[in-house]
Task: inverse folding
């Protein structure tokens, strides 16, 4: 089965740049796609200094949905948004004041990759952090999700008026240009050795091998989805959802996890109506549990409900769900500017056209 490779290198333009992230892309692009992916054949998507986090999310989402092994190479810098103090991957237009709207929230990686079969996803990271982010990540390590293997390094900010090099990622690319792909652990060790030999700061080493996940119920779901047995997958998830409700309560994190899984399964089955309705329920449940409207899980549920609603072709079903989505967007506007106006505008266009009354003819 062919693999998929996503090459993402991003850093702000101007004085806020800590690392020349995109400089490594020509070296990575010179590596054969099959070697990058560790498969016989591979599709490669390259994003160099992208501007829009939503555009990056679209590419990440498509890569996550692809069958077969997925390898994501990320080079760039991390910054905190001022509102929630969450790490973001800075993009070309990011400034300290605009992180929330111009950078890619790191938890989007976790959210988009969470349904992939454990053991099929590898993240290779070369990240620098500004001083504030570096300090926070010392207490709250970077979360890449439970199902992905993670290799790389997180480096502190370089000296003043200095732009760092993505030396770890360059070392990875140099090893791979030999045409051979060693096992991820060996590749990681060789890259770190090269960085240390050049006298550069390694920083925090990121090394989380692929999970072993025998007995993981998500594996059974993945098998059913790959085989096109979508009803079976939903029935399995519904059973685990009910088990979680009985054990932990309907508003528990365990129960909501399985509700979210069912929403994603509906999306994979091509049922945007059911997916949208389920995401609306997840958002409502999280808000009812006291979670803030700008909490990442609440925003993610609202964004996914909105995305699925936009894919509904049946006007009557879209009109049915539209008011609930508009009410949710009034409480959870999210990071997408004009989200509520978008819902209201489409609802207006979906209003049924009432034909004029038929002319009445009087016959003598």
Result:
């Amino acid at each position: 089965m062919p693999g998929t490779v996503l090459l993402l290198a991003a850093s702000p333009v101007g004085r806020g740049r800590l690392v020349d992230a995109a400089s490594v892309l020509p070296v990575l692009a010179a590596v054969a796609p099959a070697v990058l992916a560790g498969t016989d054949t591979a599709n490669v998507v390259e994003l160099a200094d992208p501007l829009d986090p939503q555009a990056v999310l679209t590419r990440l989402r498509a890569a996550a949905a692809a069958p077969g092994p997925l390898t994501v190479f990320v080079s760039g810098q991390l910054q905190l948004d001022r509102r929630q103090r969450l790490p973001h991957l800075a993009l070309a237009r990011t400034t300290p004041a605009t992180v929330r709207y111009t950078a890619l929230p790191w938890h989007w990686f976790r959210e988009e990759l969470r349904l992939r079969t454990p053991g099929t996803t590898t993240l290779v990271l070369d990240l620098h952090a500004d001083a504030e982010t570096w300090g926070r990540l010392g207490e709250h390590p970077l979360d890449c999700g439970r199902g992905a293997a993670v290799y790389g390094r997180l480096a502190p900010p370089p000296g003043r008026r200095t732009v760092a090099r993505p030396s770890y990622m360059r070392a990875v690319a140099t090893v791979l240009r030999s045409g051979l792909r060693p096992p991820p652990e060996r590749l990681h060790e060789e890259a770190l050795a090269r960085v240390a030999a050049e006298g550069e700061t390694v920083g925090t080493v990121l090394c989380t091998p692929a999970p072993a996940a025998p007995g993981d119920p998500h594996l059974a779901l993945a098998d059913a989805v790959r085989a096109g047995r979508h009803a079976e997958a939903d029935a399995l998830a519904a059973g685990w959802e009910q088990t979680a409700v009985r054990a932990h309560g309907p508003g528990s994190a365990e129960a909501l996890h399985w509700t979210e899984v069912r929403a994603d399964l509906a999306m994979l089955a091509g049922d945007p109506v059911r997916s949208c309705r389920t995401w609306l329920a997840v958002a409502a449940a999280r808000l009812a549990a006291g979670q803030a409207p700008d909490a990442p899980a609440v925003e993610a549920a609202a964004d996914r409900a909105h995305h699925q609603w936009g894919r509904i072709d049946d006007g009557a079903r879209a009109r049915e769900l539209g008011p609930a989505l508009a009410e949710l967007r009034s409480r959870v506007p999210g990071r997408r500017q004009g989200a509520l106006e978008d819902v209201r505008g489409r609802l207006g266009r979906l209003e049924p056209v009432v034909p004029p009354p038929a002319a009445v003819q009087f016959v003598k």
Observations:
- Residues 3-208 form a domain with the Rossmann fold fold (CATH 3.40.50.1460).
- The mean pLDDT is 90.
